[in-house]
Amino acid sequence: MINGFKEFISRGSAIDLAVGMIIGAAFTQIVTALTDNVLNPIIGGLFGQPRFDHVGEFTIQLAGDPAVVQPGILINAIINFLLVAIALYFFIVMPMNKWAERTKKAEEETAPEPNPEITLLQEIRDELKAQNSGTQN
Question: Is the pTM of this model over 0.70?
Answer without folding.
Answer: no
